[in-house]
Design goal:
The protein is an alpha/beta fold. The chain is about 25% helix and about 20% strand. A twelve-stranded mixed sheet has the order 7-8-9-6-5-4-3-2-1-10-11-12.
Length: about 325
């Protein structure tokens, strides 16, 4: 059992497969000419399988594959199929551009839930955010997932004066489709030009929703990060991940492995423990996992707390989002 010093049980592991992505979203990749890690620095297929197995033996029940864009990795299908043999709930987060190439792999791996990152329903703005003309392809792939019976969650990072005017459009989308939209408060990471004025808050989202809809709060699952709601009579739902204004750290059950095999005990932790090189050297990684867990702060990696208006992004020591894994 993986338990930290605050008695939180950890049974959810997020594994980044790569820091490569075919999009160039500013809040994730600081610049178009970003340098990515060489393949030799990444966890290889057999290493991912071995390390994941050891985590599962310690009590991990759910694994999410992230990136970068996890489906950009050449052996992504092999990794997905290998991990599907473990006794865990396997899922992934993707930008949606390559789903059509992997739909049969998802089925073979018995993946039933997919998270798709989508910050706008406007094609021109999509191109502005991602620097790629793939909006129609992503939309078609979302529809493909729905038609194939997958549970589809859409992750939208809300940024004031940029896409907050689309919140109601996203909620409208849940009327006739079983889509589960999750509005994410804008979070500070290295190089993503975070500013507290860009944070569109949980309460502001609900106030805006209330101006048009009657909705009900849904029951939250244990360790849930999203506060979920459903408009009366709608097929889908909407939710808010309120990291900046109403953190959910008290019930955190998540651990992370970066693509280069570093263990992070929190998305915002400034400390990392090298699991991969220890594994390559034949060392027992259990003490390292336990050490990382013991170092876990009570909230937000111990780097900031309280009023998000007082957060200094330059004082936060971390990687860029793409180097951590979404």
């Amino acid at each position: 059992m993986l338990q930290d010093s605050f008695n939180r049980i950890h049974d959810y592991l997020r594994i980044s497969l790569t820091d490569v992505c075919n999009f160039r979203c500013q809040y994730c990749i600081p610049n178009e000419e970003a340098q990515f890690m060489p393949s030799s620095h990444l966890m290889q297929l057999n290493e991912i399988e071995s390390i994941a197995t050891q985590f599962v033996n310690l009590g991990i029940k759910k694994i999410r594959l992230t990136g970068g864009e996890p489906l950009a990795r050449k052996d992504a299908a092999d990794i997905i199929l290998a991990l599907s043999k473990l006794p865990v709930k396997l899922t992934l987060t993707t930008n949606g551009s390559r789903i059509h190439q992997f739909i049969d792999v998802f089925k073979a791996a018995k993946i039933r839930s997919i998270n798709v990152s989508l910050d706008t329903l406007d094609a021109a703005k999509f191109n502005q955010i991602t620097k790629r003309d793939l909006f129609t392809q992503v939309l078609n792939n979302i529809k493909l997932l729905i038609n194939e019976g997958f549970h589809v969650k859409l992750n939208m990072v809300v940024m004031r004066s940029f896409n907050d005017n689309e919140i109601l459009n996203f909620i409208d989308w849940t009327k006739n489709l079983p889509i589960h939209v999750r509005f994410i408060e804008f979070m500070p990471f290295t190089g993503n030009q975070w500013d507290n004025e860009k944070v569109f808050t949980f309460q502001e989202i609900l106030t805006l929703a209330s101006s048009k809809y009657q909705y009900a709060k849904l029951r939250e699952e244990p360790n849930e990060t999203a506060k979920s709601f459903q408009v009366n009579g709608y097929q889908g739902t909407f939710a808010v991940i309120s990291t900046m204004t109403a953190p959910f750290c008290n019930t955190c059950n998540r651990l992370r492995l970066t693509a280069d095999g570093k263990m992070k005990n929190c998305l915002f932790s400034n400390g990392e423990i090298d699991i991969l090189n220890a594994h390559r050297n034949g060392a027992n990684i259990l003490p390292l996992i336990q050490q990382s867990l013991a170092n876990k702060a009570l909230a937000l990696g111990g780097q900031f707390e309280g009023d998000y208006h007082q957060v200094d992004p330059h004082a936060i020591t971390n990687r860029s989002m793409i180097k951590i894994g979404g």
